[in-house]
Amino acid sequence: MQPPKKIRLDQADKKLILEYPDGAFVLPAEYLRVYSPSAEVRGHGIGEGTLVSGKMHVGIDRVASAGRYALQIFFDDGHDSGIYTWAYLRELCETQPEKWQAYLECLQREGKGRDPDESPVKFIG
């Protein structure tokens, strides 16, 4: 898989813009953070992943190449262990609507939220 022809970090709007010969994609920092390929998020085996919540305000401090095959993203919450291969970044671009909807549904199912200041309240009556 070829890398994007251009990568731009928009820190103010908290997004990464990837330009390919066939079009550009805008990936919000929150989306990239909750779908990090790190072992912390994905786990070490099938079914071991962790649902990441409360990342609505996360930003990206910087990005760096990881060899010739990937990008390392340094998030402002200290997370930096995910290595995003060119193939995985392209997958995130092409499946963004479906993946984002699946994430929102999972949050709802688990009673968690995107906002770190939001805590589910259970009323006992």
TrEMBL record:
InterPro entries with a match to the protein in the record: GBBH-like_N (IPR010376), GBBH-like_N_sf (IPR038492)
Keyword flag Cell cycle: no
Gamma-butyrobetaine hydroxylase-like N-terminal domain mapped to chain residues: 7-90
A Pfam family of this chain: GBBH-like_N
Key word Transferase present: no
Taxonomy, superkingdom: Bacteria
Sorted UniProt keywords: Iron, Metal-binding
Protein's recorded name: DUF971 domain-containing protein
Natural source organism: Microbulbifer harenosus
